[in-house]
Protein backbone atom coordinates (compact mmCIF):
# COMPACT_ATOMS: atom_id res chain seq x y z
CA UNK A 1 0.00 0.00 0.00
CA UNK A 2 2.46 2.60 -1.05
CA UNK A 3 1.20 6.12 -1.25
CA UNK A 4 -1.41 5.74 1.46
CA UNK A 5 -1.81 8.50 4.01
CA UNK A 6 -2.07 6.15 6.99
CA UNK A 7 0.62 6.64 9.63
CA UNK A 8 3.00 3.80 10.27
CA UNK A 9 1.76 2.51 13.61
CA UNK A 10 4.84 0.51 14.37
CA UNK A 11 7.10 3.54 14.82
CA UNK A 12 4.78 5.98 16.56
CA UNK A 13 6.49 7.65 19.49
CA UNK A 14 4.90 9.29 22.47
CA UNK A 15 5.74 12.85 23.41
CA UNK A 16 8.59 12.89 25.91
CA UNK A 17 8.55 15.25 28.84
CA UNK A 18 11.57 17.05 30.21
CA UNK A 19 12.65 15.38 33.45
CA UNK A 20 14.12 18.62 34.81
CA UNK A 21 10.92 20.60 34.19
CA UNK A 22 8.74 17.98 35.89
CA UNK A 23 10.93 17.38 38.94
CA UNK A 24 12.19 20.99 39.26
CA UNK A 25 15.74 19.71 39.84
CA UNK A 26 18.91 21.68 39.31
CA UNK A 27 21.71 20.42 37.09
CA UNK A 28 25.13 20.45 38.74
CA UNK A 29 28.50 19.33 37.40
CA UNK A 30 29.16 17.40 40.63
CA UNK A 31 26.23 15.03 40.01
CA UNK A 32 28.20 12.58 37.90
CA UNK A 33 25.59 9.81 38.08
CA UNK A 34 22.97 12.18 36.66
CA UNK A 35 25.27 13.45 33.91
CA UNK A 36 26.26 9.92 32.88
CA UNK A 37 22.66 9.26 31.82
CA UNK A 38 23.01 11.99 29.18
CA UNK A 39 26.34 10.78 27.79
CA UNK A 40 26.51 7.77 25.46
CA UNK A 41 29.03 4.93 25.61
CA UNK A 42 31.49 6.86 23.44
CA UNK A 43 31.50 9.86 25.79
CA UNK A 44 29.37 12.07 23.56
CA UNK A 45 26.36 14.05 24.71
CA UNK A 46 23.04 12.51 23.74
CA UNK A 47 20.72 14.74 21.66
CA UNK A 48 17.39 16.16 22.80
CA UNK A 49 15.37 13.82 20.63
CA UNK A 50 16.80 10.86 22.54
CA UNK A 51 16.69 12.24 26.06
CA UNK A 52 13.48 14.25 25.87
CA UNK A 53 14.88 17.34 27.58
CA UNK A 54 13.68 20.80 26.62
CA UNK A 55 16.01 23.27 24.87
CA UNK A 56 16.65 25.31 28.00
CA UNK A 57 17.70 22.32 30.09
CA UNK A 58 19.68 20.79 27.23
CA UNK A 59 21.84 23.92 27.15
CA UNK A 60 22.34 23.75 30.93
CA UNK A 61 23.11 20.05 30.67
CA UNK A 62 25.72 20.63 27.96
CA UNK A 63 27.40 23.33 30.03
CA UNK A 64 27.56 21.14 33.14
CA UNK A 65 28.87 18.12 31.19
CA UNK A 66 31.64 20.32 29.79
CA UNK A 67 32.48 21.59 33.27
CA UNK A 68 32.63 18.04 34.63
CA UNK A 69 34.94 17.05 31.77
CA UNK A 70 37.34 19.92 32.49
CA UNK A 71 37.84 18.90 36.11
CA UNK A 72 38.07 15.19 35.15
CA UNK A 73 34.81 13.97 36.65
CA UNK A 74 33.72 12.77 33.20
CA UNK A 75 35.98 11.55 30.40
CA UNK A 76 36.25 13.45 27.13
CA UNK A 77 36.42 10.19 25.17
CA UNK A 78 35.55 6.71 26.35
CA UNK A 79 37.81 3.82 25.39
Walkthrough of the structure:
The chain is mainly α and 79 residues long. The chain contains 4 helices and no strands. The chain has helices at 19-23, 32-36, 48-51, 55-70. The model has no long low-confidence stretch (mean pLDDT 87).
Give me a quick take on this structure.
The chain has 79 residues and is mainly alpha-helical.
- Strand-residue fraction? under 5%
Task: Return residue spans where pLDDT drops below 50 for at least 5 consecutive residues.
Answer: none
* N-C termini distance: 46 Å
Order of helices and strands: HHHH
Mean pLDDT, all residues: 87
Number of strands: 0
Q: Sketch the major β-sheet.
A: none
- The oligomeric state is single chain
Shape: elongated
Radius of gyration: 16 Å
Number of helices: 4
Helix content: 25-40%
Give the SSE map:
Layout (H helix, E strand, L loop, with lengths): L18 H5 L8 H5 L11 H4 L3 H16 L9
Key features of this structure:
79 residues; mainly alpha; 4 helices; 38% helix; 0% strand; elongated
